[in-house]
Amino acid sequence: MWDAVVVGGGLAGLIAGIRATQRGKRVLLVTEGVGTLFHFSGIFDYGDVEGLRHLPKHPYTLFDSQAITQGKHFVQEICPEYVVNDRPQSAFNVLGTVRQGDLMPRSMVLPDPQEQGVFVLLVPEGLKDFFPEIVADNMAREFPGWQVSVKRMQVDALQEWTRLGKSVTSIDYADIWRSEEGYRALAHEIDEIKRQFQDAGRSQGKIVVVLPSLVREYFDASRTKFYRNEFSLPVLEMSSFVPSPHGRYFAEYLKHIFTDLGGELMIGARAVSLKGELNSEGHAKICQELVVRSMGKLMRLKGKKFILATGGLLGGGIKVGMARRSIRESVFDLPLFIPQEWSVPQFLAPQPYAQIGVETDQFMRPLDPVSGQVVWDNVHVVGRMLAHWDPWTQRCGGGVSVTSGYAAAELI
Amino acid sequence: MDSRDELAARLDACQKCNVCTAQCPVAKVNPHFIGPKGLGPDMERFRLGQTIPRETTLDDCSNCKTCEVTCPSGVKITEMIIEARRAASKAPHKNTLGLKLRLRGYVLGRAEYLGKLGVIWPTMTNQILKIKPVRLALDKVLSISKSGPLPAYGKPLEVLVGKRPKIKASDSKQVVYFPGCYTRYNEADTGQILIKVLEHVGYKVIMPDFHCCGLPLDANGQFEKAHKNGLYNLELMRPYLEADMPIITSCTSCGLTLKEEYPKFQTTSAQLIGAHSYDLFEFLWQLYEKGELPLDFQEVKASYGYHPPCHLKAQRIGTPVVRILGLISGVKIRNLDAGCCGLSGSYGFKAEKYDNAMKIGSTLFEAINVGAGRGDFQEITTECGVCKVQIQHGTGIPTDHPVRILAKAYGLIN
After folding, report:
1. Residue A209 to residue A236: CA distance in whole angstroms
2. What are the chain A neighbours of B234 within 8 Å (beta carbons)?
3. Contact B69 A294 (CB under 8 A)
4. How many CA atoms lie within 13 A of A269 on its CB side?
5. Where does the 4Fe-4S ferredoxin-type domain lie (chain B) (predicted)?
6. Chain B interface, mutation test: which of A129, A181, A213, A267, most B Cβ atoms within 10 Å?
7. The CATH classification of domain B297-409, taken from the options 3.40.630, 1.20.1250, 1.20.120, 3.40.50
8. Residues B223, B228: Cα–Cα separation, whole Å
9. What confidence tens digit (pLDDT) does each residue in B54-107 have?
């Protein structure tokens, strides 16, 4: 019997799993694949928390502001490179424009635009989906007082890739920088830049090397070795394109923290159904076991509490069928809030379908939208599966996932 | 829905998110490999239109199944690739593979015959395989890497079946053990220890004269022979399966084959095999949950790094060994989970793949070296025989099957 079975290995599920394990609970985390964390840019958006708390039914209304701050501090606790700040901070996105974010690694935070200096954009050869000219143009526009210069570099280990004209993903580059050989190549290149700009007297101001695909805030599989930071110039990293190295390393990092604390991870398993019965008052049902398809047999995972963190439409927690209006939550078959009209014509406008999800009570237990009654007594819904919010226009995806995951773990 | 339609349906489930390629150990080290998404679902669209790519491209996949476990949409990527290999082997223009490589496929696929040969005079075989010119010759003639860590042979595990196996429904305290070629021919003592452990927890062990499960044959293009082996083994299992007896595996690749491939066969026992096959620790954990696992453990003061084999992950059962060993007082176990060891069955034995196999394993080797250097653990434990061989080759750190730790705790070995 597990204290909690978490279904879903994305941000909300892993945060819930880690926090509950940290609190001494026996936790099993079941996930079909790696989840949407591979799309994580490295920056957590919380959005206008106070404003959103005034929207009826927004997930933030389920939490007090203290709980939201606690979640932020938890991220900082498990990954000290993230620094909780009162005001939003700015970073370069993958196109070189400036975006704000509420929680980002130290190494992404942009310098003061009022200062004077030089950005040297270091472009690794053949980096996939990266357009140096556009990036440099955008950087110059964003920082009018700064000079922007582009330097390309090659890595020996990738000669064959270059010869074949094959692009290299930012995940592969991030991996190379962590190797001894890759680190040396990078350090050498940065020394060169220093010589070129500073020692030659070409610049009096600050020189900042900007590098895509450098992920240095999480330690690697050996659990000991943080990315080495000793370069002769400050290095600023950009957020990344998908599949994102930040997402990949963060997912791995959270997974290792979870299993090192004693949590058990069951990856590749698809939750298919559950067994439960009505509670003593006869209102809500108590879930006893989650049924998971594991090759030829069905595994029954018994738990005291269940956390549903399967994601929304993108993560696969909500399935839309070919039949018109066929839409369902795929594990517990929970009733969903579905707006009358799913979409509006303007592509970038707030889309009603973003609001699709499960309505819950203040303990994140699923509600029947018609009767308002709790459906499952010991099931907590977290992350993207929650109804009445829009991560894209409200820019609060990380905030809702971290806060709800953390808060659910406190209820185990 | 027949299986072909099902595959097509999973094909449409691919969202092109590229996560599988980002996680693929081979794509990371081999620029010529287009990666699981490319070779699986992308090319599958062409294959469905009858354009069959050259076998050598298909051959780059090491069959570790990391992509399938990683896929958020449940796409059977490796299965598509293996199916395409099967189709390519029947295609009219199949002479793309030279005689040497076909011969090598024949040899490496025959883990069982190699085992039978090797154990006739194990010391001699082992000595011969250590001679440099012999390895050079194997490299030249068969493209079997001269540097690869070929496993040593020992006295084989004896078959355990009564003259007339008594199978009664009341004899529920019996299990069938499927040892696999590695345990049977290379590490029979591990097999004997496992049998002792099963007896200690109250089960009589039956071990018929199984053939190789077929996975190395499939992986080396010997599809028909693999199929024959499967049918043979299923027939041997039939009476036991019909008597509702569990089939226990200790090799994660054999376990995966029993669970994933055998149910596709067109026999009655194929319908029973999936629900009856268990990894050893999966089986023990089930006993524990029912309160039937003896907990008379002695303290074992030791720390281990644990490497979860790719084919254990592909069984989708989590890491039951960590749960079981966690019950023993004194045992400290750290789940390294640092990726594929690189050997992937017989992949890393191949001359042109050896360097890449070592590169694939480097993350794991580093995690092991750093952990051991810091004193987190002194030994490594892993269920898979070839992972073990590769880890020892890459790090020099003693590595063994976790059943030995359990046997120590039960006082069955020192």
Report:
1. 6
2. none
3. no
4. 33
5. 52-81
6. A267
7. 3.40.50
8. 9
9. 555 788 888 999 999 888 888 889 988 888 888 877 776 555 567 777 777 777
- In chain A, what are the domains? 2-82+249-410 (3.50.50.60), 94-238 (no CATH)
Model confidence pLDDT, tens digit, residues A245-259:
999 889 989 999 999
Q: What's the pLDDT tens digit per position in B343-398?
A: 887 787 888 888 889 999 998 999 999 999 989 999 999 999 999 999 999 999 99
In the block, which residue shows the tokens 């644990």?
B306
Which of residues B172 and B75 earns the better pLDDT score? B75
How near does any CA of chain B get to the CA of A18, in Å? 15
The helix (H) or strand (E) run that includes residue A172 is helix A170-178
| Residue B202 or B134, more confident | B202
C-alpha B394/C-alpha B367 separation (Å) is 12
The two tokens of residue B14 are 């691919």
Contacts of B322 in chain A (CB under 8 A): 264
Helix (H, G, I), strand (E, B) or coil at B140: helix
Put simply, the chain B residues between 120 and 159 with a CB less than 8 A from any chain A CB are none
Report the chain A residue with the minimal C-alpha distance to residue B317: A266
Q: Is B345 on the interface with A (CB under 8 A)?
A: no
Q: Given a cut of 50, is residue B180 above it in pLDDT?
A: yes
Domain regions of chain B by residue span: 3-90, 99-142, 174-286, 297-409
Residue-wise pLDDT for A72-106, tens only, equals 999 999 988 898 988 889 999 999 999 999 999 99
- Which of B 371-390 lie inside 8 A of A, CB atoms? 371, 374
Which B-chain residues 37-56 have CB contacts (< 8 A) with chain A?
A: none
Average pLDDT, chain A: 90
Of the candidates A40, A88, A17, A63, the residue with the CA atom closest to the CA atom of residue A306: A17
Q: Which top CATH class is B3-90?
A: mainly alpha
